[in-house]
Amino acid sequence: MRIVQKFGGTSVGSVERIQATAKIVKAEIDNGNEVAVVVSAMSGQTNYLLGLANDMNDCPPAREVDALVATGEQVTAALLAIALNKLGVSAYSMSGAQAGFKTAGKHAKARIKSVQGEHLIQRMQQGSVPVVTGFQGVDEQGNVTTLGRGGSDTSAVALAIAVKADSCDIYTDVDGIYTTDPRIEPKARKLDSISYEEMLEFASLGAKVLQTRSVELGMRYNMPIHLRSSFDLVQGTRVTREDKGMERAEISGVAYNRDEAKVTIKGIPDQPGIAAAVFGPVAEADINVDVIVQNISEDGLTDLTFTVPRNDYQATMDVLNALCIKMGAKKVKGDNQVAKVSIIGVGMRSHSGVAKKMFDVLAKESINIQMITTSEIKVTVVFEEKYVDVAVRALHEAFDLAQA
Ligand code: ADP
Ligand code: ASP
Ligand code: MG
Description:
- The two termini are about 30 Å apart.
- Strands 3-6-2-1-9-11-12-10 form an 8-stranded mixed β-sheet, with helices on both faces. Strands 14-15-13-16-18-17 form a 6-stranded antiparallel β-sheet. The protein has a two-stranded antiparallel ribbon with strand order 4-5.
- The protein folds into 2 domains: about 1-175, Carbamate kinase; about 255-400, VC0802-like, CATH 3.30.2130.10.
- The longest helix has 25 residues, at about 60-85.
- The chain is about 35% helix and about 25% strand.
- By secondary structure, it is of the alpha/beta class.
- It contains 12 helices and 18 strands.
- It is globular and about 75 Å long.
- Magnesium ion (MG) binds near residues 8, 150 and 153.
């Protein structure tokens, strides 16, 4: 088998953890497999480096921030290669640029355009282990770029696709994907497998256990992802194609995201083109809009409410305040203490009343829902952030997720 193994921050968080990780890699080589490795920075290191940049300058140039944070992964790649060589395994570290990760798009949000796998395959066939820095690549101008927080997952899946691996094994500090974040609900149950589609919803709705883009890539190229623990080498959770034959529970899990803010532009003239007029400038400011609600118009005026990442709250308010004047709207309102909780599951396609049950559970906890959005396999609600823990636990219980 050819395997790409990815080790997250806690799996390379200390000298001891790097040594333990080297043993996990060696075991796969000893089993006769070809292995390439992708590493994250030591846990806490990316935040530490970002803090240094901000101490230096409130508004550090994005190119330099990328150059700085990319060093976190370079340290762990080299240390792991050193540890592997000590165990008698031929290994060599490579930066994203050396491994052939070409990117496009903005600094800190770059997208992988291509990865050159051939030279790595050759080395792997000779029994050598490339240890590649996750989270980074190089753009057309030769600048070092990074892929957004949690981006090493995406590096790993992209590398697995480029070297035509049989599996992408993502090692972390939990032994699988759970019905909800085990940090909030200790009764959460580990899933043996989950479909790409459900995992995509889980990840994009806030379960940061895998970066959303890694799941998108896995789904597009049908790359099996095995999420497992580097602390306890038990079977983890397999992310694969949906098994259509199986009976499904109403829902598979609960996700949450505290990183939300809500903005409203009130009293805008209700005419064709207003949504485009509002969301155009928001998109130009590189702000991702999520849940959108437009109210029924009264006296020819309407309100538009939508959510954005909390980090973009002020920038969104600035754009809307400028638009408010330009479009003759009445006012702009905002709230950056909201959160989003979602129930997810392909079982929703065949069970009715799932959304109503969710609303009943939240009503019983006296949680006032501010916005609702649904798709075929999820229901998302937005409410005050302080209720997240209560809501996650109550939903987990009501939908019997702790049961096997
Ligand atoms: P790494 O540094 O290895 O990439 P992350 O911190 O990014 O690890 O992701 C692992 C964490 O994801 C876990 O410690 C867990 O708290 C969190 N998490 C959130 N939702 C879930 C879930 N549904 N199942 C498992 N872990 C989850
Ligand atoms: N080190 C980066 C981060 O902390 C990338 C990663 O760990 O996936 O976001
Ligand atoms: Mg991660």
